[in-house]
Protein backbone atom coordinates (compact mmCIF):
# COMPACT_ATOMS: atom_id res chain seq x y z
CA UNK A 1 0.00 0.00 0.00
CA UNK A 2 1.45 3.43 -0.93
CA UNK A 3 -0.36 5.23 1.87
CA UNK A 4 -2.29 4.16 4.95
CA UNK A 5 -4.31 6.93 6.57
CA UNK A 6 -5.43 6.61 10.17
CA UNK A 7 -8.80 8.34 10.62
CA UNK A 8 -11.69 9.03 8.23
CA UNK A 9 -12.50 12.53 9.45
CA UNK A 10 -12.13 15.36 6.97
CA UNK A 11 -8.37 15.60 7.47
CA UNK A 12 -7.78 11.91 6.69
CA UNK A 13 -10.17 12.05 3.73
CA UNK A 14 -8.47 15.18 2.36
CA UNK A 15 -5.16 13.32 2.33
CA UNK A 16 -6.83 10.37 0.62
CA UNK A 17 -8.28 12.66 -2.08
CA UNK A 18 -4.84 14.15 -2.76
CA UNK A 19 -3.07 10.80 -2.76
CA UNK A 20 -5.51 9.02 -5.11
CA UNK A 21 -5.25 11.98 -7.50
CA UNK A 22 -1.55 11.05 -7.77
CA UNK A 23 -2.43 7.47 -8.58
CA UNK A 24 -1.33 6.07 -5.21
CA UNK A 25 -2.92 3.01 -3.63
CA UNK A 26 -4.56 4.28 -0.45
CA UNK A 27 -6.23 2.61 2.53
CA UNK A 28 -8.10 4.64 5.14
CA UNK A 29 -8.50 2.91 8.52
CA UNK A 30 -11.26 4.26 10.77
CA UNK A 31 -12.01 3.07 14.27
CA UNK A 32 -15.74 3.84 14.14
CA UNK A 33 -18.38 2.41 11.81
CA UNK A 34 -18.70 5.92 10.28
CA UNK A 35 -17.06 9.26 10.99
CA UNK A 36 -18.62 10.77 14.10
CA UNK A 37 -15.76 12.98 15.29
CA UNK A 38 -15.23 16.73 14.94
CA UNK A 39 -15.90 16.48 11.20
CA UNK A 40 -19.66 16.00 11.69
CA UNK A 41 -20.05 18.15 14.80
CA UNK A 42 -19.27 21.63 13.45
CA UNK A 43 -21.20 24.26 11.50
CA UNK A 44 -20.57 23.05 7.95
CA UNK A 45 -18.84 26.38 7.45
CA UNK A 46 -15.86 26.59 5.12
CA UNK A 47 -14.67 29.92 6.43
CA UNK A 48 -12.00 30.90 3.95
CA UNK A 49 -11.89 34.66 4.39
CA UNK A 50 -11.30 34.83 8.13
CA UNK A 51 -8.07 32.80 7.88
CA UNK A 52 -4.75 34.60 7.71
CA UNK A 53 -1.21 33.95 6.50
CA UNK A 54 -0.41 30.42 5.36
CA UNK A 55 -3.83 29.25 6.61
CA UNK A 56 -5.47 31.64 4.14
CA UNK A 57 -3.52 30.14 1.26
CA UNK A 58 -4.49 26.62 2.39
CA UNK A 59 -8.11 27.77 2.68
CA UNK A 60 -8.14 29.22 -0.83
CA UNK A 61 -6.72 25.95 -2.18
CA UNK A 62 -9.29 24.00 -0.14
CA UNK A 63 -12.12 26.13 -1.51
CA UNK A 64 -11.35 25.04 -5.08
CA UNK A 65 -11.15 21.42 -4.02
CA UNK A 66 -14.46 21.54 -2.12
CA UNK A 67 -16.23 22.99 -5.16
CA UNK A 68 -14.76 20.34 -7.46
CA UNK A 69 -15.42 17.51 -5.02
CA UNK A 70 -19.01 18.59 -4.47
CA UNK A 71 -19.64 18.22 -8.21
CA UNK A 72 -17.74 14.95 -8.59
CA UNK A 73 -19.03 13.27 -5.44
CA UNK A 74 -22.56 14.67 -5.78
CA UNK A 75 -23.09 16.65 -2.59
CA UNK A 76 -24.06 20.28 -2.19
CA UNK A 77 -21.30 22.83 -1.68
CA UNK A 78 -23.14 26.12 -1.45
CA UNK A 79 -21.52 29.43 -2.32
CA UNK A 80 -23.48 31.26 0.35
CA UNK A 81 -20.68 33.36 1.82
CA UNK A 82 -20.66 34.34 5.47
CA UNK A 83 -22.14 37.34 7.18
CA UNK A 84 -20.59 38.92 10.24
CA UNK A 85 -23.18 40.88 12.22
CA UNK A 86 -21.83 43.89 14.14
CA UNK A 87 -23.80 44.99 17.18
CA UNK A 88 -21.43 47.66 18.47
CA UNK A 89 -19.41 50.43 16.85
CA UNK A 90 -16.11 48.79 17.83
CA UNK A 91 -17.18 45.58 16.04
CA UNK A 92 -17.95 47.58 12.92
CA UNK A 93 -14.55 49.27 13.22
CA UNK A 94 -12.87 45.83 13.16
CA UNK A 95 -14.88 44.91 10.07
CA UNK A 96 -13.90 48.21 8.41
CA UNK A 97 -10.22 47.43 9.07
CA UNK A 98 -10.74 43.92 7.72
CA UNK A 99 -12.54 45.06 4.55
CA UNK A 100 -9.82 47.63 3.84
CA UNK A 101 -7.21 44.89 4.05
CA UNK A 102 -9.12 42.22 2.13
CA UNK A 103 -10.00 44.34 -0.88
CA UNK A 104 -13.33 42.98 -2.17
CA UNK A 105 -13.36 39.71 -0.22
CA UNK A 106 -15.24 41.48 2.61
CA UNK A 107 -18.02 43.93 1.82
CA UNK A 108 -19.26 46.28 4.50
CA UNK A 109 -23.04 46.26 4.97
CA UNK A 110 -25.40 48.75 6.50
CA UNK A 111 -27.83 47.60 9.16
CA UNK A 112 -30.45 47.22 6.43
CA UNK A 113 -27.97 45.31 4.28
CA UNK A 114 -27.58 42.83 7.14
CA UNK A 115 -31.26 42.36 7.90
CA UNK A 116 -32.10 42.02 4.20
CA UNK A 117 -29.68 39.11 3.90
CA UNK A 118 -30.23 37.18 7.13
CA UNK A 119 -33.23 36.99 9.49
CA UNK A 120 -31.54 38.51 12.54
CA UNK A 121 -33.30 40.92 14.90
CA UNK A 122 -32.65 44.47 13.70
CA UNK A 123 -32.40 45.79 17.26
CA UNK A 124 -28.81 46.64 18.15
CA UNK A 125 -27.37 45.86 14.73
CA UNK A 126 -24.90 48.56 13.66
CA UNK A 127 -23.90 46.99 10.33
CA UNK A 128 -21.89 44.02 9.21
CA UNK A 129 -19.68 42.47 6.57
CA UNK A 130 -20.45 39.96 3.85
CA UNK A 131 -17.65 37.51 2.99
CA UNK A 132 -18.62 36.11 -0.41
CA UNK A 133 -15.85 33.50 -0.75
CA UNK A 134 -17.02 31.34 2.14
CA UNK A 135 -18.84 28.07 1.47
CA UNK A 136 -21.39 25.90 3.25
CA UNK A 137 -21.93 22.14 3.29
CA UNK A 138 -24.28 19.91 5.26
CA UNK A 139 -21.82 18.85 7.94
CA UNK A 140 -23.76 15.70 8.70
CA UNK A 141 -23.48 14.43 5.14
CA UNK A 142 -20.31 15.85 3.56
CA UNK A 143 -17.62 13.61 5.07
CA UNK A 144 -19.70 10.49 4.39
CA UNK A 145 -20.18 11.60 0.76
CA UNK A 146 -16.43 12.11 0.31
CA UNK A 147 -15.68 8.68 1.85
CA UNK A 148 -18.27 6.97 -0.37
CA UNK A 149 -16.89 8.69 -3.48
CA UNK A 150 -13.33 7.67 -2.60
CA UNK A 151 -14.48 4.11 -2.10
CA UNK A 152 -16.74 3.64 -5.10
CA UNK A 153 -15.19 5.99 -7.67
CA UNK A 154 -11.50 6.22 -6.79
CA UNK A 155 -10.76 2.70 -5.60
CA UNK A 156 -9.71 3.86 -2.15
CA UNK A 157 -10.77 1.37 0.51
CA UNK A 158 -12.09 2.77 3.76
CA UNK A 159 -11.83 0.11 6.44
CA UNK A 160 -14.49 1.05 9.00
CA UNK A 161 -14.72 -0.31 12.56
CA UNK A 162 -10.98 -0.95 12.55
CA UNK A 163 -8.63 0.68 15.03
CA UNK A 164 -4.96 1.28 14.41
CA UNK A 165 -3.31 0.03 17.59
CA UNK A 166 0.36 0.54 16.78
CA UNK A 167 2.92 1.55 14.16
CA UNK A 168 6.28 -0.15 13.79
CA UNK A 169 9.03 1.19 11.55
CA UNK A 170 10.64 -1.29 9.13
CA UNK A 171 13.15 -0.79 6.38
CA UNK A 172 11.52 1.69 4.00
CA UNK A 173 8.03 0.65 5.14
CA UNK A 174 5.85 0.87 8.24
CA UNK A 175 3.95 -2.02 9.76
CA UNK A 176 0.48 -0.75 10.64
CA UNK A 177 -1.03 -2.92 13.35
CA UNK A 178 -4.81 -2.78 13.34
CA UNK A 179 -7.55 -4.50 15.32
CA UNK A 180 -8.17 -6.64 12.21
CA UNK A 181 -4.62 -7.53 11.25
CA UNK A 182 -1.46 -5.88 9.94
CA UNK A 183 -0.88 -3.79 6.82
CA UNK A 184 2.45 -2.78 5.29
CA UNK A 185 2.60 0.81 4.10
CA UNK A 186 5.21 2.87 2.30
CA UNK A 187 3.90 5.96 4.08
CA UNK A 188 1.41 6.61 6.88
CA UNK A 189 -0.58 9.74 7.69
CA UNK A 190 -2.07 9.88 11.19
CA UNK A 191 -5.19 12.06 10.97
CA UNK A 192 -6.63 11.17 14.35
CA UNK A 193 -8.19 14.54 15.21
CA UNK A 194 -7.64 15.53 18.83
CA UNK A 195 -6.42 12.07 19.85
CA UNK A 196 -2.83 12.69 18.84
CA UNK A 197 -1.45 11.62 22.22
CA UNK A 198 -2.84 8.09 21.99
CA UNK A 199 -0.86 6.94 18.93
CA UNK A 200 1.79 9.67 18.89
CA UNK A 201 2.49 10.57 22.54
CA UNK A 202 5.85 12.23 21.91
CA UNK A 203 4.57 14.39 19.06
CA UNK A 204 1.66 15.48 21.26
CA UNK A 205 3.97 16.21 24.18
CA UNK A 206 6.49 18.15 22.06
CA UNK A 207 3.73 20.27 20.51
CA UNK A 208 1.90 20.75 23.84
CA UNK A 209 -1.39 19.45 22.48
CA UNK A 210 -4.43 20.37 24.53
CA UNK A 211 -8.05 19.50 23.85
CA UNK A 212 -10.45 22.31 22.99
CA UNK A 213 -13.90 21.17 24.05
CA UNK A 214 -17.02 22.85 22.74
CA UNK A 215 -20.74 22.76 23.43
CA UNK A 216 -23.06 22.95 20.47
CA UNK A 217 -26.83 22.89 19.94
CA UNK A 218 -29.33 22.27 17.18
CA UNK A 219 -32.23 24.64 17.76
CA UNK A 220 -35.60 25.66 16.41
CA UNK A 221 -38.11 28.31 17.51
CA UNK A 222 -39.64 27.59 20.92
CA UNK A 223 -43.32 26.64 20.95
CA UNK A 224 -44.10 30.12 22.26
CA UNK A 225 -42.42 31.77 19.23
CA UNK A 226 -44.73 33.77 17.03
CA UNK A 227 -42.71 33.34 13.87
CA UNK A 228 -40.44 30.86 12.10
CA UNK A 229 -36.77 31.64 11.65
CA UNK A 230 -36.88 31.87 7.84
CA UNK A 231 -34.13 30.91 5.44
CA UNK A 232 -30.52 31.54 6.43
CA UNK A 233 -28.14 31.19 3.48
CA UNK A 234 -24.79 32.44 4.79
CA UNK A 235 -23.05 31.32 7.95
CA UNK A 236 -23.74 34.01 10.55
CA UNK A 237 -20.87 35.18 12.77
CA UNK A 238 -21.00 37.86 15.45
CA UNK A 239 -18.77 40.16 17.53
CA UNK A 240 -17.51 37.36 19.78
CA UNK A 241 -16.37 35.48 16.65
CA UNK A 242 -14.04 38.40 15.83
CA UNK A 243 -11.94 37.46 18.85
CA UNK A 244 -11.39 33.90 17.64
CA UNK A 245 -10.57 34.18 13.95
CA UNK A 246 -6.98 34.95 12.96
CA UNK A 247 -8.05 37.18 10.07
CA UNK A 248 -9.25 39.85 12.51
CA UNK A 249 -6.37 39.50 14.98
CA UNK A 250 -4.19 42.30 13.64
CA UNK A 251 -7.04 44.91 13.65
CA UNK A 252 -6.14 47.81 15.96
CA UNK A 253 -9.82 48.03 16.89
CA UNK A 254 -10.06 44.46 18.21
CA UNK A 255 -8.73 45.40 21.67
CA UNK A 256 -11.73 47.69 22.15
CA UNK A 257 -14.12 44.81 21.41
CA UNK A 258 -12.37 42.63 23.97
CA UNK A 259 -12.28 45.39 26.61
CA UNK A 260 -15.97 46.21 26.16
CA UNK A 261 -16.98 42.56 26.38
CA UNK A 262 -14.75 42.05 29.44
CA UNK A 263 -16.55 44.94 31.11
CA UNK A 264 -20.12 44.33 30.00
CA UNK A 265 -20.34 40.58 29.16
CA UNK A 266 -17.52 38.79 31.04
CA UNK A 267 -19.53 35.55 31.04
CA UNK A 268 -19.16 35.35 27.24
CA UNK A 269 -15.37 35.62 27.47
CA UNK A 270 -15.22 33.20 30.42
CA UNK A 271 -17.12 30.60 28.40
CA UNK A 272 -15.04 31.28 25.27
CA UNK A 273 -18.24 31.98 23.35
CA UNK A 274 -17.97 32.58 19.64
CA UNK A 275 -21.62 33.08 18.80
CA UNK A 276 -22.25 31.68 15.37
CA UNK A 277 -24.98 29.81 13.49
CA UNK A 278 -25.77 28.02 10.27
CA UNK A 279 -28.94 26.40 9.00
CA UNK A 280 -29.33 22.70 8.21
CA UNK A 281 -31.36 21.56 5.18
CA UNK A 282 -34.39 20.82 7.42
CA UNK A 283 -34.52 24.45 8.59
CA UNK A 284 -33.19 23.84 12.09
CA UNK A 285 -30.17 25.83 13.14
CA UNK A 286 -26.77 24.75 14.40
CA UNK A 287 -25.88 27.16 17.19
CA UNK A 288 -22.58 27.45 19.02
CA UNK A 289 -20.03 27.60 20.36
CA UNK A 290 -18.23 27.60 23.67
CA UNK A 291 -14.51 26.82 24.08
CA UNK A 292 -12.68 25.33 27.02
CA UNK A 293 -9.10 24.07 27.04
CA UNK A 294 -7.47 21.21 28.93
CA UNK A 295 -6.00 17.76 28.49
CA UNK A 296 -8.68 15.79 30.31
CA UNK A 297 -12.04 17.50 30.63
CA UNK A 298 -14.76 16.89 33.18
CA UNK A 299 -17.36 14.55 31.70
CA UNK A 300 -20.22 16.79 32.87
CA UNK A 301 -21.93 18.96 30.30
CA UNK A 302 -22.82 22.43 31.57
CA UNK A 303 -26.51 23.32 31.39
CA UNK A 304 -25.54 26.94 32.16
CA UNK A 305 -23.46 27.12 28.98
CA UNK A 306 -26.31 25.70 26.90
CA UNK A 307 -28.64 28.30 28.44
CA UNK A 308 -26.16 31.03 27.61
CA UNK A 309 -26.00 29.89 23.98
CA UNK A 310 -29.80 29.66 23.78
CA UNK A 311 -30.22 33.17 25.17
CA UNK A 312 -27.58 34.65 22.88
CA UNK A 313 -29.00 32.84 19.85
CA UNK A 314 -32.53 34.02 20.69
CA UNK A 315 -31.35 37.59 21.09
CA UNK A 316 -29.53 37.44 17.73
CA UNK A 317 -32.47 35.94 15.84
CA UNK A 318 -35.20 37.75 17.77
CA UNK A 319 -37.01 34.44 18.34
CA UNK A 320 -37.15 32.34 21.54
CA UNK A 321 -35.35 29.07 20.86
CA UNK A 322 -35.46 25.52 22.12
CA UNK A 323 -32.77 22.87 21.80
CA UNK A 324 -33.55 19.87 19.61
CA UNK A 325 -30.12 18.27 20.05
CA UNK A 326 -27.07 18.96 22.21
CA UNK A 327 -23.56 17.67 21.71
CA UNK A 328 -19.94 18.21 22.57
CA UNK A 329 -17.04 18.30 20.20
CA UNK A 330 -13.30 18.39 20.61
CA UNK A 331 -10.36 19.43 18.48
CA UNK A 332 -6.64 19.44 19.22
CA UNK A 333 -5.26 22.81 20.18
CA UNK A 334 -1.70 24.15 20.11
CA UNK A 335 -0.61 27.77 19.72
CA UNK A 336 -0.15 27.27 15.96
CA UNK A 337 -2.89 26.59 13.38
CA UNK A 338 -1.46 23.21 12.31
CA UNK A 339 0.42 20.31 13.81
CA UNK A 340 2.48 18.43 11.23
CA UNK A 341 5.17 16.18 12.69
CA UNK A 342 7.11 13.08 11.72
CA UNK A 343 7.18 10.94 14.85
CA UNK A 344 9.00 8.14 13.00
CA UNK A 345 10.38 7.77 9.47
CA UNK A 346 7.60 7.42 6.90
CA UNK A 347 4.89 8.48 9.37
CA UNK A 348 3.37 11.98 9.39
CA UNK A 349 0.85 13.11 11.97
CA UNK A 350 -1.44 15.95 10.88
CA UNK A 351 -3.91 17.80 13.05
CA UNK A 352 -5.69 21.10 12.44
CA UNK A 353 -5.16 22.80 15.74
CA UNK A 354 -7.22 25.97 15.52
CA UNK A 355 -10.64 24.63 14.61
CA UNK A 356 -10.21 25.22 10.90
CA UNK A 357 -10.22 21.74 9.41
CA UNK A 358 -13.12 22.34 7.07
CA UNK A 359 -11.52 25.52 5.79
CA UNK A 360 -7.90 24.38 5.51
CA UNK A 361 -7.59 20.56 5.42
CA UNK A 362 -7.55 20.12 1.65
CA UNK A 363 -4.90 22.81 1.09
CA UNK A 364 -2.72 21.46 3.88
CA UNK A 365 -3.17 17.87 2.67
CA UNK A 366 -1.94 18.85 -0.82
CA UNK A 367 1.27 20.17 0.76
CA UNK A 368 1.75 17.17 3.06
CA UNK A 369 1.20 14.65 0.26
CA UNK A 370 3.60 16.57 -1.99
CA UNK A 371 6.23 16.53 0.76
CA UNK A 372 5.95 12.83 1.58
CA UNK A 373 5.81 11.80 -2.11
C1 LIG B 1 -17.71 22.62 17.48
C2 LIG B 1 -16.74 22.75 16.35
C3 LIG B 1 -16.94 23.73 15.40
C4 LIG B 1 -16.05 23.86 14.35
N1 LIG B 1 -16.30 24.77 13.39
C5 LIG B 1 -15.50 24.80 12.31
C6 LIG B 1 -15.77 25.71 11.25
O1 LIG B 1 -16.73 26.47 11.32
N2 LIG B 1 -14.94 25.72 10.17
C7 LIG B 1 -13.85 24.89 10.11
O2 LIG B 1 -13.11 24.94 9.14
N3 LIG B 1 -13.58 24.02 11.09
C8 LIG B 1 -14.38 23.96 12.17
N4 LIG B 1 -14.09 23.10 13.18
C9 LIG B 1 -12.89 22.28 13.08
C10 LIG B 1 -13.10 21.05 12.25
O3 LIG B 1 -14.33 20.45 12.57
C11 LIG B 1 -11.93 20.12 12.54
O4 LIG B 1 -10.71 20.82 12.30
C12 LIG B 1 -11.95 18.89 11.67
O5 LIG B 1 -13.22 18.30 11.64
C13 LIG B 1 -10.93 17.92 12.20
O6 LIG B 1 -10.98 16.79 11.37
P1 LIG B 1 -10.15 15.50 11.74
O7 LIG B 1 -10.29 14.59 10.60
O8 LIG B 1 -8.77 15.90 12.16
O9 LIG B 1 -10.82 14.98 13.08
P2 LIG B 1 -12.06 14.02 13.30
O10 LIG B 1 -13.22 14.39 12.48
O11 LIG B 1 -12.26 13.96 14.78
O12 LIG B 1 -11.56 12.63 12.75
C14 LIG B 1 -10.54 11.87 13.36
C15 LIG B 1 -10.91 10.42 13.13
O13 LIG B 1 -9.81 9.61 13.53
C16 LIG B 1 -10.38 8.40 14.04
N5 LIG B 1 -9.35 7.75 14.86
C17 LIG B 1 -8.74 8.24 15.95
N6 LIG B 1 -7.84 7.35 16.42
C18 LIG B 1 -7.92 6.27 15.60
C19 LIG B 1 -7.23 5.02 15.57
N7 LIG B 1 -6.28 4.71 16.46
N8 LIG B 1 -7.56 4.13 14.61
C20 LIG B 1 -8.50 4.43 13.67
N9 LIG B 1 -9.17 5.61 13.66
C21 LIG B 1 -8.88 6.51 14.61
C22 LIG B 1 -11.57 8.88 14.85
O14 LIG B 1 -12.48 7.83 15.07
C23 LIG B 1 -12.11 9.99 13.95
O15 LIG B 1 -13.13 9.52 13.07
C24 LIG B 1 -14.94 22.99 14.26
C25 LIG B 1 -14.73 22.01 15.22
C26 LIG B 1 -15.61 21.89 16.26
C27 LIG B 1 -15.34 20.82 17.26
Automatic annotation (TrEMBL):
One of its GO terms (molecular function) is oxidoreductase activity. Residues 2-369 form the FAD dependent oxidoreductase domain. Its cofactor is FAD. Keywords: Flavoprotein, Oxidoreductase. InterPro entries: FAD-dep_OxRdtase, FAD-dependent_OxRdtase_HpnW, FAD/NAD-bd_sf. The keyword rRNA-binding does not apply. Gene3D superfamilies: D-Amino Acid Oxidase, subunit A, domain 2, FAD/NAD(P)-binding domain. GO terms for cellular component: cytoplasm. Belongs to the DadA oxidoreductase family. NCBIfam families: HpnW_proposed. This is FAD dependent oxidoreductase TIGR03364. It comes from Myceligenerans xiligouense.
